[in-house]
Amino acid sequence: MAKPVQIEVWNPNGKYRVVSTKPMPGTRWINLLIQQDCRVEICTQNKTILSVEDIIALIGDNCDGVIGQLTEDWGDALFSALSKAGGKAFSNMAVGYNNVDVNAANRYGVAVGNTPGVLTETTAELAATLSVAAARRIVEADEFMRGGLYEGWLPHLFVGNLLKGQTVGVIGAGRIGSAYARMMVEGFKMNLIYYDLYQATRLEKFVTAYGQFLKANGEQPVTWKRASSMDEVLREADVISLHPVLDKTTYHLVNKESLAVMKKEAILVNCSRGPVIDEVALVEHLKANPMFRVGLDVFEDEPYMKPGLADMKNAIVVPHIASASKWTREGMATLAALNVLGKIKGYPIWSNPNSVEAFLDENSPPPAACPSIVNAKAIGLPVSKL
Ligand SMILES: NC(=O)C1=CN([C@@H]2O[C@H](COP(=O)(O)OP(=O)(O)OC[C@H]3O[C@@H](n4cnc5c(N)ncnc54)[C@H](O)[C@@H]3O)[C@@H](O)[C@H]2O)C=CC1
Ligand SMILES: O=C(O)C(=O)CO
Question: Which residues does the UniProt record annotate as the domain D-isomer specific 2-hydroxyacid dehydrogenase NAD-binding (predicted)?
Answer without folding.
Answer: 130-322
